[in-house]
Design goal:
Blueprint: H1 2-11, H2 18-35, H3 38-52, H4 56-73, H5 76-93, H6 96-112, H7 116-133, H8 136-152, H9 156-172, H10 176-191, H11 197-216, H12 220-236, H13 240-257, H14 260-274
Helix pairs in contact: 2-3, 2-4, 3-4, 4-5, 4-6, 5-6, 6-7, 6-8, 7-8, 8-9, 8-10, 9-10, 10-11, 10-12, 11-12, 12-13, 12-14, 13-14
């Protein structure tokens, strides 16, 4: 992959038009980001920013991409600085699709910092923009994020409703990755505190299946989120040693991925395994 980037830098983007070059570098950055290669992703997005110049739409795309490694790593100050610069450029370009994407990502930063009211405001603003544009997958993402935020706030009923709406949109759009993401959280809601052992086992099997499908789709963050929820479910059943093994394995992968928020959740659950009683 690095050789491909070097070849592009030596003989490609300098001769390409700015939109083509930015699109290629943005795509490469997203591939690196998905693989957990933060340094390589940043290099590709930095090159995209340079190639974008002062074109506001191209600059917004490149800056929003450059923010992604900081969002994942929990570097709140840098992430927000880049995202607000991207938002300013997108608003100057009048690109509502880009604005929706950037506002959603600002919401993710607020969510990771525990500012749930601010996060919800961003997710709802992004959803309204995307709904107006008919961008169904984007609306599904917003709804999932709304559900996740309500879950963190302890509002299980609203979380359940948002996850179901998101899942329905994903199924209608045949977007399996989004479907699996919602299945992960819906299985958890059926597991958590469920006294019916038969129902618990069925929900636990659904959670394991969702995690397996996420790995098949190369969606490591969703798979590791599933492992975190699996560990919490096992703790609830008194299977502390098994839970700790699941959580420790997931933590190693989350740290390798540089997924700070997820790693923080995993460490907190591991600490709970070690706590007396």
């Amino acid at each position: 992959m690095q050789g491909a980037l070097d070849a592009q830098e030596g003989s490609g983007p300098a001769q390409w038009t700015a939109p083509v070059a930015v699109g290629a570098l943005e795509g490469l950055g997203l591939v690196w980001h998905e693989c957990g290669a933060s340094a390589e992703a940043e290099a590709a997005f930095e090159a995209a920013v340079q190639r974008a110049g002062e074109d506001p739409a191209l600059r917004a795309r490149a800056l929003s991409g450059l923010a992604l490694p900081s969002v994942r790593a929990g570097d709140e100050a840098r992430a927000l600085s880049l995202l607000h610069a991207a938002l300013n450029a997108a608003e100057r370009a009048g690109d509502r699709l880009l604005i929706g994407r950037i506002v959603n990502n600002i919401g993710i930063v607020h969510h990771g910092a525990g500012r749930y009211t601010d996060a919800l405001a961003c997710f709802h603003r992004s959803r309204a923009l995307r709904q107006g544009l008919g961008y169904r997958n984007g609306v599904a993402i917003n709804l999932h994020n709304v559900g996740d935020t309500h879950l963190r706030m302890g509002d299980r009923a609203r979380a359940f409703a948002a996850f179901h709406k998101s899942r329905d949109l994903c199924v209608a759009a045949r977007w399996e990755r989004g479907e699996v993401l919602n299945d992960t959280f819906l299985a958890w809601l059926d597991l958590d505190g469920n006294p019916d052992q038969e129902a618990w086992q069925a929900a636990y099997a659904r959670l394991l299946e969702a995690s397996r499908r996420a790995r098949d789709l190369a969606d490591l963050e969703t798979a590791l989120t599933g492992a975190w929820l699996q560990g919490r479910a096992l703790v609830g059943q008194g299977e502390v040693a098994q839970a700790a093994a699941v959580l420790e394995a997931a933590l190693g992968e989350a740290e390798e991925l540089d997924a700070a928020s997820l790693a923080r959740d995993l460490r907190a659950s591991l600490a709970g395994c070690a706590a007396p009683g």
